[in-house]
Amino acid sequence: MEFEAFLLSLGTSAFIFLVLMFLFTWLSRRPGNVSIYYPNRILKGMDPWEGSSLTRNPFTWIREAFTSSEQDVVKLSGVDTAVYFVFLSTVLRIFALSSLLILPILLPLAATDNSIKNTRNEADTTSKGTISQLDNLSMANITRKSSRLWGFLGAVYWISLVTYFMLWKAYKHVSTLRAQALMSADVIPEQFAILVRDIPSPPNGQTQKEFIDSFFRDIYPETFYLSLVITENSKVNKIWKGLEGYKKKLARAEAIFAATSTRPTNKTGLLGLVGEKLDSIEYYTDLINESMAKLETEQKKVLAEKQQTAAIVFFTDRVTAALAAQSLHSQMVDTWTVTEAPEPRQIIWENLKIKFFTRLIRQYLIYFIVAVTILFYMIPIAFVSAITTLDNLQKAIPFIKPVAKITFIRTVLESYLPQIALIIFLAMLPKFLMFLSKSEGIPSRSHAVRASSGKYFYFSVLNVFIGVTLAGSLFDNLKALQQKPNSIVTVLATSLPKNATFFLTYVALKFFVGYGLELSRIKPLIIFHLKKKYLCKTEAEVKEAWYPGDLSYATRVPSDMLILTITFCYSVIAPLILVFGVIYFGLGWLILRNQALKVYVPSYESYGRMWPHIHTRILAALLLFQVVMFGYLGVKLFVWATFLVPLIVTSLIFGFVCRRKFYSGFQHTALEVACRKLKQSPDLEEIFKSFIPHSLSTHKPEDHLFKGAMSRYQDYAAISAA
Amino acid sequence: MEFEAFLLSLGTSAFIFLVLMFLFTWLSRRPGNVSIYYPNRILKGMDPWEGSSLTRNPFTWIREAFTSSEQDVVKLSGVDTAVYFVFLSTVLRIFALSSLLILPILLPLAATDNSIKNTRNEADTTSKGTISQLDNLSMANITRKSSRLWGFLGAVYWISLVTYFMLWKAYKHVSTLRAQALMSADVIPEQFAILVRDIPSPPNGQTQKEFIDSFFRDIYPETFYLSLVITENSKVNKIWKGLEGYKKKLARAEAIFAATSTRPTNKTGLLGLVGEKLDSIEYYTDLINESMAKLETEQKKVLAEKQQTAAIVFFTDRVTAALAAQSLHSQMVDTWTVTEAPEPRQIIWENLKIKFFTRLIRQYLIYFIVAVTILFYMIPIAFVSAITTLDNLQKAIPFIKPVAKITFIRTVLESYLPQIALIIFLAMLPKFLMFLSKSEGIPSRSHAVRASSGKYFYFSVLNVFIGVTLAGSLFDNLKALQQKPNSIVTVLATSLPKNATFFLTYVALKFFVGYGLELSRIKPLIIFHLKKKYLCKTEAEVKEAWYPGDLSYATRVPSDMLILTITFCYSVIAPLILVFGVIYFGLGWLILRNQALKVYVPSYESYGRMWPHIHTRILAALLLFQVVMFGYLGVKLFVWATFLVPLIVTSLIFGFVCRRKFYSGFQHTALEVACRKLKQSPDLEEIFKSFIPHSLSTHKPEDHLFKGAMSRYQDYAAISAA
């Protein structure tokens, strides 16, 4: 790819970004779109705009994002979101502070050398085949063994030190953030409960529930409150879901009737297309009554007969719950295992019954599957990367040829094709990884998100970054690797400079087009308006159409991490990338701040438990960077490259120290945190009820009286099941 | 070494054993020796002999050992000793059960083949240079690629399966043993306390003690009892030790005066040899009074000014203490770190103040030092092993030559020299390793013993076993290793058979002479009688002279482990060693049972916390055996050797599963164990007092009143120190 193509690609991206920004400014001011651009504020019962929509300055959102405090974010979007912003700002600071010293020193150092002109050594250029202006600003332009390499070595040190410093500060900050949230004087239901798994079979004459109660009452005679035995709910859930569906359809039929004054009808056969024609309102009312009866029977059956080997145990105070969640209850570690209870809304109910060693086996099996997936995805990625160069496409699909001759289209295709292929490819993966993570037997959604985002990170670094880098000269590299299997670092280091332009374009595409689409919300907007016009009949259906969902960390964090890894690894080889990194994380911070405050609604709260994972992965990226630089300085025949070894060791020690100092505070609730006084004594009945799944609690959500009876009923049913 | 030398060495060992047994039978019946052969029973206030000493059958002790139950051992010598016997009997069972199948199958398989006669391949013989009858019974006599090797492969599987089965049973048993002991209805002081380290500096205006008390009172408002702040005691300890010394000397002077009616005198100068001559009784009385005053001043000063950043915190019930010991107290993991409190008698007081990261650094530093020690001890051991062959000695010390020509002496020297050199060499090490382990900052003696015995194990396996094996043909091996650095397993496997006779002799020496000396207690007996006759004047001094000490696991367990490793590794190559292994662990069980019941007095109780370490090391030895067999079957060009790979993986999985299932139960006190009811409500005042060090509690141990005041005083002093 030539320099012009790079500039053009940048220009196109910037142009798309400007168009999207304009669309956002225009669309977000129209009252009809308010539920797309301000759903979080609406759901929180706030005024979407503080002022009038017409007199608003189009850049108000920027001011609002900048003036919002961390506490605003916590209040409107939870601790997890605030932690995500700590991540964005930390990385932004790392790159900004790094460039402050690196750009003014390394760019002149590189520009005034002339290795490329002199040697015309292909292995040293940053573009494939041809030489571009970008190369003159990169390490490729430095002569081998040159003492200028000291500057680049120093830059690695500078970036590393800045990273350690910022990470340390951030970890401390997030730790405080988490502690403050957990200290909350408000009642957080899950702080009064623990999750108990691997409960052994009760002795003869005792029900599961009696057994659990007597076990915990022996240990906590004064603070044990109640236990909620986990049940096998698949059937009752199905009935309940059916019921909810019928209710919606009934509401819809009634809305149509109210609007058109003709009673709607529907057919009972396949997809409502064939079969008898019936009055919808009557039909669904009948179905609802039928389901309600079924639900009640099944509910009784579930509570009496389908008790599993897990339970949620409630205590009368937070300290006991925090103590209990951290302590060994049984001499045999694979029975009565305890953990902190997850939030009710994020419990993965069907995983709770999975046994200790089954969970372990599943976990390792899935690690193995992921490893295999990572390994074998590399092959198609390499092919995609090879095929999507235009020359290869022309050979494969001849009719493209005339189109490709138009210079403009040609350059656009040349600059975007590989990146687009890559992005599509990666979009297919997260669901698969999430499915795998849930299969591990993880009890909560936030934990599954962490597990899946970890897998996605290693996947994207290994496949996208290393894969693309090596694939550029796949066959040469394979040959080299066969001869010297230990030289993977050297091969990677030599291949890196050739792909600098590719990754510069990739980052630019991500921030211009990616964040442009993010802010303008074109896709949700169009879908919402289509649904509203043609499908939605009831208020509930309209709300469902605009409901924004959450920030979806499972894909967002790893994708940021990939940009971070790329920026780290090129920060010294092609320092210009630091500018792109700063823009990516700066723009990201700004735009997502707006989205967090106004758009997305968090679907769970894990009080920043994501942070240690983010921290470890930033360090992993730094380590990769240091190793790659060690290799590349070696390629440049710079003997002092060995000076990087202590830095690599420092990174490992830094990671170890951070883990020892901070990690347990994220795994457990520290007692000094749990012992803070509450505003008022907790309503334990309410806490208990919040953990009962919808399908078991009641079929009339308004009927509080009945709900109370249910929880009592459950006790009764469990005891009488003996 | 020739076969005759081996037989002679066995014979000599057996003869020494018989002599020692006879001495034991004779000496142990004499009433004057009762405090050497029955000290544990005397100290427990029991009758040393149940019947009369004269009518006693000389083999009664064997019957008594066999009929004693595990509960007897627990009662007389504690859980740790019982666990040690579980270890001995488990290994005994492994070897006995293994030989049952292996000896009748492998010995004929080996004896009827004739690889040695046919090939005269030196690398395949079990003795160095010459061929002996022993070789015919070993794997060395099996022809390469022979299908008989299937039998040997099967034997590896058999031994491994037997080991897994026995280890699993033993771990379960020990786990129950530990739980039962911890469930005890008697008050165990340390079950009511936790050890808190890394306490941050108190805020202004608070003393360390106030700060600690308020921190724990916030978290445990109802169950917190008191805290005991750790103090810097080196000076007060010194004064107290001086005082105790003077008291002993005064008692001694008084005893002399009572016996001889002349007032004893002593000189004040160097070693009591020079200087002024004084009346001893007056002199020591003066010194005692002086020290008492000094002690009291220093005690006040210590309590007021020398408070450290650690404390022992007491609770009013066991469950809270067990919960607290397992839970994270501070959001920052390196402050307020908690562990279960060790027994008062085994606390290493001066280690408690060491800070979190200092402990970590010390730990890794010491691992490094131990690794270096292991590596560099190998060199002198190799030399010892090379020099102590008789031929080399003759060259080095020519005047040995005439003596060495006498056949008898020659054979004795030939068979014992290397072993004796080895034993002396290893005797120098334990103190050094114990010093290193204590320097890690470990808070209790039992933990230090575990740490040091672990180091000793890896040391002895790596240096003695592998070292001696490889040193036999050091230079050949070094050459081989230089060419193929990955071939360490193969080199080890080829060298093993050559050393079979050496290790057979080593094991025999250990059980005949080692256990003979153990049972007959010749050395303590002689020392006791000498001391009693020439040195001891007071009753206390006599008791000190016969006080037996404990089983000293720090050296005993690793030395058993070395025998275990040797037996494992040769069990298939030279199956005869299984017989020796069975005798070693059988005889060991019998003789140590007698010693545990009658002689040794445990100096601490860790409730079997040693077991997981023993377990892991037995598995490590098994793994080494499997790897070595994989190598040796490879040397025999047996392609099916790969069938051992699944076995090696199984060992790793077995270890992992055991660790997950059982280990936490040894690390912590499970709550189902801690929640058992006590016989009576605990005397918390007494529990608190038991943790006050002697030097701080009082200078008159009988004065209970003063003791009570002291603990109150401590509260007072700490508070008034603000």
SSE topology:
Two copies of one chain form a homodimer.
Chain A: H1 3-28, H2 34-37, H3 39-43, H4 60-67, H5 70-111, H6 115-119, H7 149-182, E1 193-197, H8 208-219, E2 224-231, H9 234-260, E3 265-267, E4 277-279, H10 280-305, E5 307-315, H11 318-326, E6 337-340, H12 356-387, H13 390-396, H14 400-405, H15 407-427, H16 430-439, H17 445-471, H18 474-483, H19 488-495, H20 500-520, H21 522-534, H22 539-546, H23 553-570, H24 577-598, H25 611-635, H26 644-667, H27 671-674, H28 684-690, H29 694-697, H30 704-720
Antiparallel strand pairs in A: 1-5, 1-6, 2-5, 3-4
- What percent strand of chain A? under 5%
The stretches of 5 or more residues of chain A where confidence is low (pLDDT under 50) are 121-131, 699-722
**Helix content range of the residues of chain A, please?**
55-70%
Distance between the termini of chain A: 75 Å
Class by SSE composition of chain A? mainly alpha
Q: What's the number of helices of chain A?
A: 30
Task: Say how many strands of chain A there are.
Answer: 6
* Rg calculated over all Cα atoms of chain A: 29 Å
Largest sheet of chain A: 4 strands, antiparallel
Family (chains A, B): Belongs to the CSC1 (TC 1.A.17) family.
InterPro entries (chains A, B): Csc1-like, CSC1/OSCA1-like_7TM, CSC1/OSCA1-like_cyt, CSC1/OSCA1-like_N
GO molecular function (chains A, B): calcium-activated cation channel activity
Protein name (chains A, B): CSC1-like protein ERD4
